[in-house]
Every structure is written in structure tokens, then in C-alpha cells.
Design brief:
Blueprint (H helix, E strand, L loop, with lengths): L1 E6 L2 E4 L4 E9 L6 E7 L9 E6 L6 E3 L7 E6 L4 E6 L8 E8 L13 E2 L3 E6 L1
Parallel strand pairs: 2-11
Antiparallel strand pairs: 1-3, 3-8, 4-5, 4-9, 5-6, 7-8, 9-10, 9-11
Length: 127
């Protein structure tokens, strides 16, 4: 079992960059795939938007169309961390951002298949 905690959110201006961190505690982080999702204001939990995922060894990554070209996912297994680098932020990127862990490395873009979630970090982008 792992516990996840996101950090690095904040209030930024359009065009700025942020790097979100996902720090894991517990055992086995290096074996989990990690996904990043976001929940925009007024949206339900079931409407969380997939952004990016990375396999257990970092070799396989996947990005949504909204993230491709602006966001980059990475991980540092010895440090029990995963990251989401976000560039050229837009007001529509305003949301609570979550990381999630997938024990079997099969969840991909499907939020319902992730085993563990963090509490989220708020990102607000002003115009």
C-alpha cells in the first residue's frame, strides 16, 4: 500500500510554468504506474480528466491531447516521487490536480482502475 501527497500547486499567471510533485510513502512505489488527473471547478469526481501516465520504470508514458506538448511526466523511483511539469499554463488549466497509483500497471487513462489517490493540489491560472 502507498500513500500519495501532491505538492507544488499555486496561483500563477497565464504563460507561467509549474512543477507538481507526487510523493509516496509506504512500500512498493517503484512498481506502480502513476497517473496525473485534474478536476476542474464544478466538475464531479467521476469527471476527473486524465492528463498523463508513466509506467513503473518510466519507459512508457501517455498524454492526453490537452497535455501533449505542454506537460511532461517523469518519476524518480529512489526518491519515491513523480512529477508533472506544466508549461505555458492557461486559465482553463485551473483545477485541482491529483496523482494516482496503479499497482498492476493497467489503468492507463481509466481513473476507476487506479488503486490509490492523493488529496490533490490546487492550481489556479489567472489571465
Amino acid at each position: 500500500q502507498v500513500q500519495l501527497e501532491e505538492s507544488g500547486g499555486g496561483l500563477v499567471q497565464a504563460g507561467d510554468s509549474l512543477r507538481l510533485s507526487c510523493t509516496a510513502s509506504g512500500r512498493g512505489f517503484s512498481g506502480y504506474a502513476i497517473g496525473w488527473f485534474r478536476q476542474a471547478p464544478g466538475k464531479e469526481v467521476k469527471e476527473r480528466e486524465f492528463l498523463a501516465s508513466i509506467g513503473w520504470n518510466g519507459r512508457i508514458t501517455d498524454y492526453s491531447d490537452s497535455a501533449k506538448g505542454r506537460f511532461n511526466i517523469s518519476r524518480d523511483n529512489p526518491k519515491n516521487k513523480a512529477y508533472l511539469q506544466m508549461n505555458s499554463l492557461k486559465p482553463e488549466d485551473t483545477a485541482v490536480y491529483y496523482c494516482a497509483a496503479d499497482f498492476l500497471n493497467i489503468a492507463g487513462r481509466d481513473a476507476s482502475k487506479y488503486d490509490y489517490w492523493g488529496q490533490g493540489t490546487q492550481v489556479t491560472v489567472s489571465s
